[in-house]
Structure formats: structure tokens, C-alpha cells
Amino acid sequence: MRRRTFVASSTTTTLLALAGALPAIAQTAPAAAYPSKQITIVVPASPGGAIDLAARLIGQKLTEAWGQSVVVDNRAGATGIIGTDLVAKSPPDGHMLALVASSHAINPSMVKKLPFDTMKSFEPVALTHVVPLVLIVSPELPVKSVAELIAYGKAHPGQLSFASSGNGGAPHFSGELFKSMTGLDITHVPYKGSTLAHPDLISGRTSLMFDTVAAANVQIKAGRLRALAVTTAKRSSVLPDVPTMQEAGIAGYETSTWGGLLAPAGTPAATVARLNAEVVRILALPDVRKTLQDNGIEPGGGTPRQFGDFIGTEMVKWARVAKSAGIQPE
């Protein structure tokens, strides 16, 4: 567990619509006497990822705006469940928040008995960011487009495999969705993180992978991996020449990883509204946007209701993917 205090002196059609809603936040009277003490943002993952970066940027700016210290508390484990459960069971006063990832909406399809209700145990605050995924292939594979990949897979049934950064994440489920929508016979090979998956993909031991743009970009730029398409509705600012999956011919295919702030259920509406307004303001700041985009992350935005509706939509989508793939919660 790593803690850091900041003191004043760092899917997507719906996702992109939320990100575009930055100025359209309703102005609600702030909760009296909030914040009255230190705020803790629990990041249910190890330091260094997208949600960790977003939490630290938001924490620093909240400290500067409100004069109250913000602690980022990394509580990794069980695909985010451990840290998220800590927030679910905390006092509903807005002083302990969770910055969850897309696994929050996937976990109900993977875990039979969660210690909390994914929707009812929390008040949605704001979508903080979107991370496009990119379909990458081994340079050993003789394909240069999604259409060629599909044709190759149909001509060589059972010979393709897709790597992922681990079971149950958006990259894994993005691969399962691709299998379902194309009808290809592809074997899933999970790894413990992208770093371990890339060498086998580069060498041709595995065929393809859905990975975050941020994680894959160095290998793509070096020519060690080939990018075929991004999974979001719009092209990535980091890979502007790479088409979207829809442009590549897979109509209706949209996935991403994302992050968003949650408060415990029962947190006063005025507190949620004040948090939302401030977080959305922070995400619109040029320096924050630049830092996120330089790391392959698109800033979020939108209202609490939009974020809550989005989580529900994601849960339904990933439940269908799990059913199609024969994945049973354990």
C-alpha cells in the first residue's frame, strides 16, 4: 500500500459524450461544511496506472481549490474489489471516495458473491477518464488490417490466440467480444500484465492482443507490434492514423477501459454535486488534460446520473460477453 498527500503550493460513444459534457454541469448549492477534514481517494490498484494518475492529478487540484489535504490510498487486489469494498463500508460523508476502473462493471460477471452491490452501494460522482484500447498483432502474422485478420482466422481455424493482461479486465473481455462478433476461433492466453504479454506477442507465440494505447504505444512506434484498430468510437489522439474498429468494418464494436469517482451510498446529494462540479472543472484544465492525453488517456466529465447510467450499461454489455464466452462467475 502506498499513500501520498497532496498539499497546496497530478466505451465509448457514451464515454465520449460524457467527456464532451464538461461545461454542462448543473450548478447545485454546495454542502455546508464540506470538506471538513482530509479527503481520501482509494485507488483499488497498484501505483502507476491510469486510475492512479487520475486520482493524483485530481487530488492535487482539489487540495489547491479547497485547502484540504487529499490522500491517495492504493489498495490493490481482487480486480479492485478490496479497495472498493473499503469505500462501500465507509461513512457516507464524502471524505472517502473510490476511483474505480472498468473492472468495477465486469466483476459482477466474474465474481459470484461480491461484498457490495455494484450499483446500490455507491453514489456515482463523475467519469474521470477514458483509455482507448488498441488491437495489436505480432509482426509475424501476415495481416495488415482487421479484414485481413478475420480472413486469416477463418482460413486457419484454431490457430489464432489472443493475449491479455489478465482474466476479467476490459482487454480480456474486448478480445472475447471480438471473438463473438467475428465468429473466429481464438484461444485466450492471460498474462500478469501487459509487460509480460508483449514479448510472446512480438515473437509470434501469441497472435493478437487488445491493450491500452498507453501500454502498447512504445512497441507500436518501434515497429515491434502492428496496430490494426482502436476500440473507441473516435480515433486516439496518440494514434491518429489508426482506424477505429467500426471504420475497420466491425459495426457496433466499442470498448475501452475507464475510470470514475464513487462515493458511499447515502452521501448527501449536495456533497456529490459539489464534488462533481469541482472534478469536472479540474478535468477541463489545460495542464490536466495535457498530462492525461500525453499518457494516452482522454479526460472525462458529465453528471453523476450520466456516470451511473453508463456503469449500468457497461454491466449489461459485459454480462452478455461473459455469457457468450461461457464465463461463469466463481
Helix content: 25-40%
Mean pLDDT, all residues: 91
* Main sheet specs: 7 strands, mixed
- In N-to-C order, the SSE pattern is EHEHEHEHEEHEHEHEHEEHHEH
Structural class given helices, strands, pairing? alpha/beta
What's the N-to-C terminus distance?
A: 26 Å
Number of domains: 2
Inertia-based shape: globular
Report the uncertain regions. 1-13, 22-31
The CATH class label of the largest domain is Alpha Beta
CATH superfamily of the largest domain: Bordetella uptake gene, domain 1
Strand order in space, largest sheet: 1-3-2-4-11-5-12
Secondary-structure arrangement, i.e. CATH architecture of the largest domain: 3-Layer(aba) Sandwich
Can you count the beta strands? 12
Q: Looking at CATH, which topology of the largest domain would you report?
A: D-Maltodextrin-Binding Protein, domain 2
Describe the overall structure.
This protein has helices at residues 12-19, 50-66, 81-88, 103-110, 146-155, 170-182, 194-203, 213-221, 269-283, 286-294, 304-325, and strands spanning 3-6, 39-43, 70-74, 96-101, 122-131, 133-137, 160-164, 186-190, 208-212, 226-230, 257-264, 298-301. It has 330 residues and is an alpha/beta fold. The chain has 2 domains: 3-131 and 257-325, D-Maltodextrin-Binding Protein, domain 2, CATH 3.40.190.150; 133-230, 3-Layer(aba) Sandwich (D-Maltodextrin-Binding Protein, domain 2), CATH 3.40.190. The strands form 2 sheets. It has a 7-stranded mixed beta sheet with strand order 1-3-2-4-11-5-12, sandwiched between helices. The chain has a 5-stranded mixed beta sheet with strand order 8-7-9-6-10, with helices on both faces. α2 crosses α9.
